[in-house]
Amino acid sequence: MQALFLYNTLSRKKEEFKAINPPFVGMYVCGPTVYSDVHLGNCRTFISFDLLYRYLLHLGYKVRYVRNITDAGHLEGDRDEGDDKFAKKAKLEQVEPMEIVQKYTLGFHDVMREFNALPPSIEPTATGHICEQIEMIKEIINQGLAYEKNGTVYFDVEKYSKEFNYGQLTNRKLEELLEGTRELSGQDEKHGRLDFALWISAKPETLMRWPSPWGWGFPGWHIECSAMSRKYLGDTFDIHGGGMDLQATHHANEIAQSQACYHKTPVNYWIHTNMLTVNGTRMSKSAGNGFLPEELFTGNHPLLEKGYKPLAVRFFMLQTHYRSTLDFSNEALQASEKGFERLMESYKTLQTLQASSSSSENIAELQKNCYQAMNDDLNTSVLIAHLFDTVRIINSANDKKTQLTSSDITLLKKIYDDFIFDVLGLKPEKGNEKLDSVLEKVMRMVLEMRANAKTTKNFQLSDEIRDKLLAAGIQIKDGKEGSAWKI
Description:
There is one protein chain. This protein is of the alpha/beta class. Helix content is 47%, strand content 13%. The protein contains 17 helices and 13 strands. The strands form 4 sheets. It has a 4-stranded parallel sheet with strand order 2-1-7-8, with helices on both faces. Helix 11 (310-318) crosses helix 12 (330-350) and helix 12 crosses helix 14. The two termini are 48 Å apart.
């Protein structure tokens, strides 16, 4: 199953859904497990799917975007063993597990707002859908593809594989997958090495547990997404995704559960985002190179030279294709910060451009190139290169080196509105409006003083004002119609 290539598939989707106006797209993304702060790997995934969501909406699709919250039953690792992470955190902090859930869910939402990500259409929780998960497990048992041992229900992977291809998502054969797993011990309840828990028997001291036909327990990690995606998007829907670390186990098990229940392919297109590295090394807590969004914004981390604004970080993430590795470094972040500022400055300049009677630029072709980049599997790196072409054109027109008609200027504004603000989800960073107003008045006065110095041929003073402003971070640009300034 390939990643979604919009250029080839969206036209087909329009044919499939031509009876619906507008066409409908169902999209499910594996959301955060809220027992700790959201990490940057999560942020990249959700920003990538926010990009897809925004672009589908921009094209006129009606999108039901479902992003779940995992707030129950997530154990240490994928082998259904160890302690419940929520219970472990709750005991450590001496609070109720749902206090942990509430705290980190609100924190996750705060971070997503900082990154200007649109909220999903539906954000279901695992604890809110226990009944649906139990019913799905009962159906898998009825199909003969799951079994119960001492209150825990396991999915029988090898039995399932006699009818379906368990390794279809990663193009791996069952034999290869078996070779990569450990042998079962004599005490192991599982029939096969790849079997995974659908329902887990709760210990007496377990804090988060629910009644079921198999006794008190809690759901396995994988069943929640299968149950919730089906409830809100149906037996088969269009797009499912998450980080690439979910592909081999979590998403493979989701497919198996859904096919075991309904004998249908649950998802048409799978999308997986690639991992993050820091200075070429994989980001992880153990390596000491992992940092939280808040640390990135404040610069409060040994590896960071300064803090970075959320939208500049979003722009940094979007400059690399979602399926490529993204490497964090101070140099790369600072380059993106400058690039983001150039885009925002050129937008201000665009509002002041004067139209000419003729044109020396093909703005319609530039707009077409932007769509082609997005239609080619959301190729934001190419899109952003085209958007910097608009910066060049705007600055050239401002310097009277390029001619633009009023239609050209209108189309450039539309490109900004459509691709920079609407699709990429960027916007000018908010400043302190009162301070900005004061600064504007002060700079107007300084420029008048400098203009008077030039009029009286006091060029030494004129140059001194320019140089001292530059040292303070303010650049003066002289033109035929007067002087302009920018930070």
